Amino acid sequence: MDIRLLIVLTPLVLAAGWALFNIGTAALKQLQTFFNGEA
Residues 2-15: pLDDT tens digits? Predict the structure, then answer.
């Protein structure tokens, strides 16, 4: 594996993971609020 590919992909993977983490936590919070309000 070429080290340059790793250098380019690592920040992209980290940024995508961080974005998914932030969106996922907000989505879970919204789902919890939705289901708690319905019950």
Answer: 999 999 999 999 99
